[in-house]
Amino acid sequence: RRVLFRSVSQSRYYAESVYWMYHINLKGKLQGKRAAFMAALKAHGVETRESFWPLNAQKVYLEQGVVQLHDCPAANDVGINGLYLPSGPVITDEEIAAVIVAVEKAVQSV
């Protein structure tokens, strides 16, 4: 079975992550299909949010000449293809399992 999620958070003796946000970036066959992917998740009862729009793509900074759109291609990719999955300190293991199942189904259907 293919691993869909890989944890990149790290715990330290002095801190524990609360997983305030869990971000994914769509790649491969899903790249450019964020709206369809999010709709597929919503159909399975999973709410999502789009990634934050990168600074270098925001109109106010472009108009002021502070940045240019092509300055940050990786950030632009995240702005177009990224989304946040449900997370937080009170999400249950059962809810996490349901999100994973929904993601697997969305990957197959989009």
Tag the structure with descriptive keywords.
110 residues; mainly alpha; three-stranded antiparallel beta sheet; 9% strand
Outline the structure in words.
This protein has 110 residues and is mainly α. Helices cover 37% and strands 9% of the residues. It is built from four helices and three strands, in the order βαβααβα. The chain has a three-stranded antiparallel sheet. α1 (34-43) packs across α4 (93-109).
Mean pLDDT across the residues is 88
The main sheet orders its strands as 1-3-2
Fraction in beta strands: 5-15%
Radius of gyration: 16 Å
Number of helices: 4
Please give the number of β-strands: 3
Q: What structural class should be given to the helix and strand makeup?
A: mainly alpha
Q: Based on Cα principal axes, name the global outline.
A: globular
Terminal CA distance: 19 Å
Q: Runs with pLDDT <50, length 5+?
A: none
Helix content: 25-40%
H and E order: EHEHHEH
Profile the largest sheet: 3 strands, antiparallel
Short characterization:
The protein has 110 residues and is mainly α.
Which helices and strands, and how do they pair?
Layout (H helix, E strand, L loop, with lengths): L21 E4 L8 H10 L5 E2 L8 H5 L9 H9 E4 L7 H17 L1
Antiparallel strand pairs: 1-3, 2-3
